[in-house]
Amino acid sequence: MVRQVPLRTHWLMLTVLVLTLSAALLLQGYTQHMYGHAADGAVPAEGSNQNVPAGVREGGPVIDGASDRTAAPGAKTLALTFDDGPDPQWTPQILDVLRRNQVHATFFVVGTQVAANPGLTRRILAEGHQIGIHTFTHADLAHAAPWRRSLELRESQLALAGATGQTSSLLRPPYSSSTDALTDADWQAVQQAGREGYLTVLTTLDSEDWRRPGVEQIVANATPKGAGGQILLMHDAGGDRSQTAAALEQLLPRLKASGYRFETVGDAVRLPRPVRPAEAADHWQGLAVIGALTASDWALTLLGWLLYAAGAVSVLRAIAVVVAARRHKKVRDRPWGPPVTEPVSIIVPAYNERAGIEAAVRSLLASDHPVEVIVVDDGSTDGTADLVESLNLPFVRVIRQQNAGKPAALNAGIAAARAELLVMVDGDTVFERDAVRMLVQPFADRRVGAVSGNAKVVNRGGLLGRWQHIEYVVGFNLDRRLFDLAECMPTVPGAVGAFRRSALLRIGGVGESTLAEDTDLTMALCRAGWRVVYEERAKAWTEAPASLGALWRQRYRWCYGTLQAMWKHRGALRQGGQAGKLGRRGLGYLLLFQVLLPLLAPVVDVFALYGLVFLDPVRIVGLWAAFLALQTAMGVYAFRLDGERLGPLWSLPLQQFVYRQLIYLVVIQSVCTALAGSRLRWQRMQRYGTLQVPPQVPRGPQ
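RE: above sequence
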């Protein structure tokens, strides 16, 4: 029993996934791209210092911002400090140098680096060194809002607690230097840190290793010029630190020989336990922070690979369809064989098609090829059959049946047809005068079982109509040329297609197990060994949906029905001959370009927004412009192949912001519906009466 089950769970899942991805990207953007990572001494302090107490400006480098008290190392005491780490390449080298020289130092670590290198952070503590925090993202606290300062300190503390089970009350603000360089903005940050329980550790001696001036110059800069105690600034991350490691090999023995003692900051100024065990809650929260950062790293890495793959596949597809279109044009200019002149039976399944049925029937009778028209009224309630009969047109028959669905109507028409060659056409479609003749010429080749014509949008006014017109010409028709050359045509559209009656009867007629009966029928013919080809000169004009809601319903039915047909005919993958071509070429193409790539589209859009906010927006816009240029070039080529005016292509950029999203959401809903095992009813599209009666056939009595 066919039932319609509305699904809401998949939209909830999609929303959760998009929000989760957005959160991961926001976390990545904040931690990796919101702030610079220049070394502290590389950014000189600027601004007034009138509010900085004189005792602080002239005091020691260790400051309690809550009480304005300072402290300094004793004479001949040097507290060696390293900023910006830990770094997986340089920190281990520096730790090795310190171990060989039996020196303990203080490492001011960045929270994100701790989260990325928790094992290395634990090694620092295990080897007797001291740890302080250097904010979470190397943010300039002096120019940050109070809430952001607190966030930076809290998150860096949690990262440290999660990685090591320890916390630290030592803070070195990024871009800081000595006490006499403090500005009023710096002092506000120091005071706030003091109120939150931190001691700010500045420097008295800068090795300037961040400049990478050479090993000898680093040694000279790091050598004290007197007997006073010093806090020496060096770096174990933030760039190439090979000069720093080499300079330490010379500096440490030399200073020891000069009588200097190396101590941690805490020992140098006699601080009671600046590094302490973290509370259990902080440890677990820290583990969660590290987990979130790790997950966001993985998500961004995976996303990057997927985007590269999607981009490469899209470019390859563009090249393939253009090359195929050029070759197809040359091949199809050749005659199929002797002209096909035998009569054709045209089957028009109709359910409440009163708005356009007269135009459709008259256009078919206007054909320059002998035809009979069979209108199968599938239980219409709007008088469709009565209207056709009232026209009193020759060579037109009306078959009435109770409403049983489009496949049943087509099968009734096939049974009633007198000709071997059949044309199936929707009731919302009008044919050009030579369309039927062009459509049946490929049947001169006895291997051909079906022919796809060239469906065009008639109501192409307005943006929605233009976008569908572009899709028909650039998407559908270019693909059909490729399918034709590869002998794996998956769909003869219901709007304009021709078939051998004997071939249809051999496969049991039109199936009723899918919503895309045209795709199901085409695949069944391919699996039976028949060739299905594309005749671009057989043109028919069809009404396209005129509202987003109608478009959604139509494409939902198409996409869901295509998925049903693909699953039904999956056995073609294991077959040989014509069936194998459908399975390995046609189904593979549909799976890749009409299912998997659209499923990635929301990820692409989210990443594009991420790039505009956190990465180089010029580069992102440039990539988008390049992608749009590729689409435009394909559009121009496809429009010229179809003999269309290029005017509608101006709307192509706008198509990326509404139409594309709607189409990929349709794919997502269709896939979720298919996975849930639900069935949908066939839905008739609303007709608008935009089809025009061709002038070649006189109107019958009214």
